[in-house]
Inverse folding.
């Protein structure tokens, strides 16, 4: 009988997994990067000192220093010496765009879909529960968010999408679902709403919001679930296409007959036009 | 309904009122003190500033926040945009922490920030700003503050007929619910307490969940009347509001009498709290 590791083994493995230095610096860097990209830490904001950061995150000072150095190298943080010195967040639209592109390139299609699916799970449930729990005033609140949405710019559209989904989450009356929505928006948001660079996607977002508002007003949970699922699936497929676009721009041309190109593996389709799985 | 059941319903409604009313009175005191302080600052050469007001607000809020017995979990003042000379958008809000420690809410005051939220759209501002009266918001998930499941009581501070801000307090739903469900259970009555939108605050029926909307024939009409009496004029129009001055809590309570529901139950407003006790349905 082959040994079947069950869920218990996987859960235990997480508990006793080594906390190596390199891994932790990356986690610290990612946590701060997510916060900067999501706007939780603002452009120009002073970060805590290395030692304060280390203390509050529960890592060694050298780990915090390593994370800050990575952030500096990525142009997210700049350090000023002297009495008024410290590390400051530097974040502009170009950096935002570059970071999202890098992340889309770095993550495999499998990982992108997995992140999107996780977000979808929460968003779909929020819409379903909101159908049952939203009062008339709550629905008006959603109408107001859509009315105030700035569909002219990608940034404005991303903010509107974030606020709208957050408000739908709040209508569930569930503190945990709101917390999850906030957490996932920070991690997945910039990826899922990258499609809002496209004006057609911004317009579609407005249509989606109005349709979902109607579904919630009518208490039609099944329709609400479908609307959210389809909307997020479209954003995910755009992201998958964007990944192909980004990689097509960086992968050198490969001759059709090359055996090596057949075995290229996940995430690097060649220009030779091999069918994608 | 027999007289004894009526008396029991009244007693429970009174107990609910007695739980909430002291908080209302406290916030009214904060409003009066804040108004006096702001009038003083307005008359001074510097005008009203966050730098001067914040320590004052902290002083008002601290005793309740450090008191472990108090239901107050958060408290402070939120300024009308543009009112304070040194802070165009300003929240001065403190939260109770473990062991009596206090923490100031880190709000996003920069309108250019991704995270900025115009608080004038939120219920705890929007309704008191329009009605000129105290408002009881919730239960709701307060994602601007702590992600916690919260009730918020806010009352407007007006100077010279203009709104300069709101003062108020947050209560955690889990704490207030515990106190209120005890009041219901102690009486032996089966009942459900709802807010003015029909949202369940607590119930002796464990299958009626806090946060669900209570859908009963005739209840919407009762609640519409409660809202109309408690909130008065929602138009935000100063002139029409002047024509119908703010009723006192006693007057509001007197105007909100029990109503019988078509299905056979009774809806009994609890004083001027805006909460309604529903029994027999």
């Amino acid at each position: 009988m082959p040994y079947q590791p069950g869920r218990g083994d996987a859960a235990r493995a997480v508990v006793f997994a080594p906390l190596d230095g390199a891994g932790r610096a990356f986690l610290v860097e990612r946590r701060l990067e997510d916060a900067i990209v999501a706007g939780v830490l603002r452009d120009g904001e002073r970060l805590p000192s290395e030692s304060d950061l280390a203390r509050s995150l529960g890592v060694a000072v050298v780990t915090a220093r390593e994370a800050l150095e990575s952030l500096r190298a990525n142009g997210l943080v700049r350090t000023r010496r002297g009495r008024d010195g410290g590390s400051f967040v530097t974040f502009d639209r170009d950096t935002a765009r570059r970071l999202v592109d890098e992340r889309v390139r770095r993550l495999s299609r499998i990982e992108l879909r997995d992140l999107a699916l996780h977000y979808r799970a929460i968003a779909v449930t929020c819409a379903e529960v909101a159908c049952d729990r939203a009062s008339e005033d709550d629905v008006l609140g959603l109408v107001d968010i859509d009315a105030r949405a700035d569909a002219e710019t990608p940034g404005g559209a991303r903010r509107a999408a974030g606020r709208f989904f957050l408000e739908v989450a709040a209508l569930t009356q569930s503190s945990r679902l709101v917390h999850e929505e906030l957490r996932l928006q920070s991690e997945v948001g910039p990826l899922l709403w990258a499609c809002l660079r496209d004006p057609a996607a911004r317009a579609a977002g407005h249509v989606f919001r109005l349709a979902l508002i109607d579904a919630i007003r009518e208490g039609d949970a099944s329709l609400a679930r479908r609307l959210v699922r389809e909307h997020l699936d479209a954003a995910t497929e755009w992201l998958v296409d964007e990944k192909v676009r980004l990689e097509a721009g960086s992968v050198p041309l490969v001759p059709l007959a090359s055996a090596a190109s057949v075995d290229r593996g996940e995430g690097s389709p060649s220009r030779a036009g091999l069918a994608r799985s | 309904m027999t007289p004894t059941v009526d008396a029991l319903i009244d007693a429970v409604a009174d107990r609910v009122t007695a739980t909430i009313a002291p908080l209302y009175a406290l916030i009214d005191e904060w409003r009066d003190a804040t108004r006096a302080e702001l009038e003083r600052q307005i008359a001074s050469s510097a005008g009203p500033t966050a730098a001067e007001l914040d320590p004052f607000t902290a002083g008002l809020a601290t005793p309740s926040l450090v008191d472990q017995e108090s239901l107050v979990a958060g408290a402070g003042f939120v300024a009308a945009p543009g009112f304070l000379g040194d802070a165009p958008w300003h929240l001065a809000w403190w939260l109770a922490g473990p062991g009596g420690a206090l923490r100031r809410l880190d709000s996003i005051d920069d309108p250019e920030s991704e995270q900025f939220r115009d608080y004038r759209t939120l219920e705890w501002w929007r309704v008191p700003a329009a009605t000129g009266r105290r408002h009881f918001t919730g239960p709701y998930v307060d994602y601007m503050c702590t992600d916690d499941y919260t009730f918020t009581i806010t009352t407007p501070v007006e100077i010279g007929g203009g709104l300069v801000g709101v003062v108020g307090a947050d209560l955690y739903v889990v704490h207030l619910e515990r106190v209120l469900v005890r009041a219901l259970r102690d009486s032996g009555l089966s009942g459900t307490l709802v807010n003015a939108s029909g949202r369940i605050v607590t119930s002796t029926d464990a299958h009626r969940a806090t946060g669900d909307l209570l859908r009963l024939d005739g209840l919407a009409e009762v609640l519409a009347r409660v809202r109309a009496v408690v909130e008065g004029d929602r138009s935000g129009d100063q002139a029409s509001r002047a024509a119908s001055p703010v009723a006192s809590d006693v007057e509001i309570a007197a105007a909100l009498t029990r109503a019988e529901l078509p299905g056979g139950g009774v809806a009994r407003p609890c004083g001027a709290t805006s909460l309604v006790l529903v029994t027999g349905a």
